[in-house]
């Protein structure tokens, strides 16, 4: 599977790849395309699927996908081989047309050859499977040593469905199943240490109660090589 890197973000343009990520690998992403002429809306979004940096990095680390950047290939002038291949394809199509259209098509193509080639380049941006026009991007998208990424990776390895939790004042949301079918069950707060400040504890637990979810604090173990979790629930002694 190929991810297309655009402005530092990994995108999926193929609907089958999008469904594979959701059903086989529990990677949700977010649809950011425009579905109709009225403009973008959260209820009518379409492909491409934008991935967070930690989702992109996880797919690379797990060998599920490779990231390609086409900036270099698309910004340079086509070489003679590509021009020849384009001309051969163009000639083949001309032969399939009626004689009356050949001369007109040839004139129109020569007149707009620059626009046609630019259009071809733009189309390649949406074809992550065109390996010959893509260059593998080997730099890290997200710091794999960061605690936030390690927590995301650990939850994913445990079989959880995980998405960004910014809208709920958390680092991540955890779902018991596909988010299309289930509401999030937990909010996850990433802590640099096991110690939780009292005000932070009260604020996050109250927030979890308001949104009807369990609050989980995640931190690295003392040895630093594993992730530990603390689930905190709000209780009312008067009840």
Descriptive report:
This protein is α+β, with helices and mostly antiparallel strands. The protein folds into 3 domains: 1-70 and 127-142, MutS, DNA mismatch repair protein, domain I, CATH 3.40.1170; 80-124, no CATH class; 145-239, Trna Endonuclease, Chain: A, domain 1. The chain is 38% helix and 22% strand. It is built from 8 helices and 11 strands. It has helices spanning 15-25, 53-61, 71-75, 80-95, 99-111, 113-124, 147-157, 198-210; strands spanning 2-6, 9-12, 30-34, 45-51, 66-69, 135-136, 161-164, 172-175, 186-190, 214-220, 227-232. Strands 3-4-2-1-5-6 form a 6-stranded mixed sheet. A hairpin with a 7-residue loop joins β7 (161-164) and β8. It is elongated, with a radius of gyration of 24 Å. The model has no long low-confidence stretch (mean pLDDT 84). Belongs to the tRNA-intron endonuclease family. It is an enzyme of class 4 (lyase). Its main location: nucleus.
């Amino acid at each position: 599977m190929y991810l297309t890197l655009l402005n530092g973000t990994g995108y999926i343009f193929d609907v089958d790849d999008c469904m594979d990520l959701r059903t086989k690998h529990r990677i949700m992403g977010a649809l950011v395309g425009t579905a109709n002429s009225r403009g973008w809306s959260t209820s009518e979004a379409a492909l491409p699927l934008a991935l967070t940096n930690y989702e992109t990095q996880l797919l690379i680390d797990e060998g599920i996908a490779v990231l390609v950047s086409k900036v270099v290939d698309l910004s340079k002038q086509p070489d003679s081989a590509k021009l020849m291949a384009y001309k051969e394809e163009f000639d083949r199509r001309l032969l399939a047309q009626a004689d009356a259209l050949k001369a007109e098509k040839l004139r129109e193509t020569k007149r707009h050859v620059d626009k046609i080639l630019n259009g071809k380049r733009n189309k390649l941006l949406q074809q992550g499977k065109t390996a010959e026009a893509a260059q593998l991007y080997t730099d890290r998208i997200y710091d794999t040593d960061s605690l936030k990424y390690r927590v995301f990776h650990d939850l994913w390895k445990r079989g959880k469905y995980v998405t960004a939790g910014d809208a709920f004042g958390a680092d991540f949301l955890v779902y018991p199943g596909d988010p299309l079918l289930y509401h999030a069950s937990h909010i996850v707060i990433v802590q640099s240490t096991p110690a939780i400040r009292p005000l932070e504890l009260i604020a996050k637990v109250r927030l979890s109660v308001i949104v009807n979810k369990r609050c989980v604090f995640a931190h690295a173990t003392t040895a630093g090589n594993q992730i530990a979790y603390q689930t905190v629930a709000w209780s009312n002694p008067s009840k």
